[in-house]
Amino acid sequence: MRLDDDINRVAAELEPYAKILDHEATKYWELHNKRFKYITRLTGELIEKLTLSGCSVERILDIGNSFQTLMINRVKPDLQVDTMGFLDGRYKPDGPTKHYDFDLNDAYYPDRWLLLEEQEKYDIILFLEVIEHLYTAPEQVLSFLGSFLKPHGFIVIQTPNAAALISRARLLFGRNPYDPIRTNRTNPGHFREYTKLEMINHAQQSGFVVHDLIMMDYFQQTTVAEKFCLSVAKVLPATFRTGMTVILRKMA
Asked: Domain count of the chain?
């Protein structure tokens, strides 16, 4: 209950901040704030799980900082939240923090991998709404991220479900369910979205076990068609939901 209270308090603090940012950032907050709350709660639960197992959680790595970086940083101010990828100054965490300027597509080249000492590695790595923006194979990216993870740690992936009901409906009516690749190389859009079974296979091939996999509708839907599909998907199997959260641990 305390965790939920803290999350709601911080979300209320971030709401006016989101509204004074540029249109794209404001829209992203409106569409994803339910997801930001969910991932913050999930991160808190994983921290508690690790603490109860005797592990001391001190640092989290967030790949691609955004509103969730600020939310987790403020809900858990005693933890150091480090970041990797393109550093967006709008979402820079408070307090001590480290940023790794690394293009995840370069995980294709093992000789370019960043190397960490064992004591520098992370208890939790958040890999949220990023994997679909990469053109490098998931096995190569996940293997690289695994080198940053402590043996007991978690990697949490969030990504759209390629087989969501709304995507199937668009394809049924002859529409491509996925946006075209953009001309902006720093924000190219989605190269590839994944299904539940694909994510499980990619994880296993990268040396991980799937600790948990949750299919949820945590994106705000705006069109009539999206809202209709959302209501119908609630009575269908979970594989029709729009969002996927995958929690990985290293194989023993």
From this structure: 1
